[in-house]
Amino acid sequence: MTTPVLTVTLNPAIDQTITLDALRPGHVHRAKAVRHNAGGKGVNVASCLADWGVPVIAGGLLGAANAAPFEALFAAKGIADGFVRLSGETRTNIKIADLAGADTTDINLPGLSADAAALERVRQSLRDLVEPGALVLLAGSLPDGLPADSYATLSADLAALGARTVLDSSGAPLAAALAVTDGTLPYCVKPNRHELEDWAGKPLPGLPDVLAAARDLNRRGVGVVVVSLGAEGALFVSGDRAVRGRLPAVNPLSTVGAGDAMVAGLIAAFRRDCPLEEVARLSIAFAVAKLGQFGPNLPEADTVRALAAQVTLTDLAPTDL
Ligand SMILES: Nc1ncnc2c1ncn2[C@@H]1O[C@H](COP(=O)(O)OP(=O)(O)OP(=O)(O)O)[C@@H](O)[C@H]1O
Ligand SMILES: O=P(O)(O)OC[C@@]1(O)O[C@H](CO)[C@@H](O)[C@@H]1O
Fold it and tell me: Where does the Carbohydrate kinase PfkB domain lie (predicted)?
């Protein structure tokens, strides 16, 4: 299939990753290293898909004043630039990588404001770029000024264009896109456990609780529900099937964008109409492969394939509910 994948990022970011020996709130820190990379969820997904050899267009809303790192990434990886430019600067998000805690603290800034005219320009760009049958990702937070139903609106447009929509968002924009009853629900959503809890409006402490909420979404009409569980792997639910996948990560370098790499793996598998087990293997392999890289990058394809072969899969029967 040569139809390009389109990723839509309405609130991209330049990620500034600051590496510290140990993060101690209230103390002065001397950084060990600082890195910048063009980011935002859809940009990260496009970057991983390009590494995997998938033709991809990255679109959404981008500040014209500091677009250079994005343009450099697109040129380096052969990603087509479908971004609508707004005047002003794309936000910088701060990621504090704590070597002692082996985790990352995110400080995501609000970013540019957008208005109805900006969303309309994105809608027009989708009409220009999307071919029937294309996979389109809507990902990340919404910029200030856009209504919470913006993803619901884009998802309806994409359904009318004959696209398959994958949605990775959170909070009110995710809830609004999942509340529609007109048959324009996304084909796939990938909440993490916390995002699914927000949607469900209650804690989901055990795997059976997570599975029940994912099945609920699936029954409402979302074709494939994937719940990422950090180091615990991920859950994949579609129709009467539910599969749990796990793969330990060896010496993770950065957890920023692991979820995005997982989404890239999902899309890579959907493009080939893979069965659920293969979807699980490839998306977990993408995520774990990315953990070994700084920035939204994948290692060589053979390394990813070797990881995919090592993923442990468990079939969850309906009685596991
Ligand atoms: N520490 C880890 N060890 C092994 N695998 C991990 C680890 N962290 C993440 N992963 C893998 O990455 C996938 C996505 O991670 P996670 O659930 O943290 O997504 P997320 O919250 O959307 O992340 P992000 O904020 O980076 O987008 C997990 O399902 C898992 O396969
Ligand atoms: O503020 P949002 O849009 O929810 O998330 C933005 C962000 O944290 O997501 C990516 C990691 O998934 C980063 O590149 C980026 O900084």
Answer: 9-299
Residue nearest to atom 5 of ligand 1 (CA): 231
Range of the domain at 168: 5-21+33-320
The whole-angstrom separation of Cα 145 and Cα 153 is 15
Domain annotation covers residue 56: yes
CATH code of the domain containing 311: 3.40.1190.20
Ligand 2: centre distance to CA 109 (Å): 10
Mutate to test the pocket of ligand 2, among 9, 15, 70, 105 (most ligand atoms within 8 A of CB): 15
**Domains of the chain: total:** 1
Judge whether 184 lies within some domain: yes
User: Is the ipTM reported for this complex over the cut 0.90?
Assistant: yes
Ligand 1 centroid vs 257 CA: distance in angstroms?
8
Tens of pLDDT, residues 254-266: 788 999 999 999 9
Q: Which pLDDT tens digit goes with each residue over 112-171?
A: 999 999 999 999 999 999 999 999 999 999 999 999 999 999 999 999 999 999 999 999
Task: Judge if the beta carbon of residue 173 lies within 6 A of ligand 2.
Answer: no
Residue 193, amino acid: R
- Check pocket membership of 161 for ligand 1, CB cut-off 6 A: no
